[in-house]
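How a chain folds remains the central question behind the approach discussed here. For one protein, we set the task of working out the structure tokens from the amino acid sequence alone. The sequence in question and its structure tokens are set out directly beneath this paragraph.

_____
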Amino acid sequence: MPRYFTIGETADYFGVSVDTIRRWESEGRITSQRTKGGHRRFLASALAEIEEEERNEKPTLCYARVSTRDKKDDLERQANTLVAYCENKGWQVELIKDIGSGLNYKKRGLNKLIDKILKEEVSRLIITDKDRLLRFGSELIFSLCSHYQLDMD
């Protein structure tokens, strides 16, 4: 008997939100069957095929930042956590590390991140905390990700 996943289980499987699964379905990237009650059910074997296709997609961009050089241990901890998370999901990873104030918009890594988003070179952005992007204004980066339909974790 075939195995089916709920929308929540499917979101966990791909490491994305339930809203992303709904968007993927409306875009035709993923298909579901409906129960009598109207709930979505996703065929497990179809999800495995989609996951394999995703592995061949654009890399996942991980961004780690600390404010000063004396916090370099924390930078490495962030980087290791992000990379391990992505590798566990089977995603191709590109890591950007930055040292600089969260108030500084001219950091090399932040500008590289924005450039990659604008050039549509990545499939998703992963951070440990929204303050790692910018102290104020991380919503601008989130808006860019939304506009270019990048997944966020």
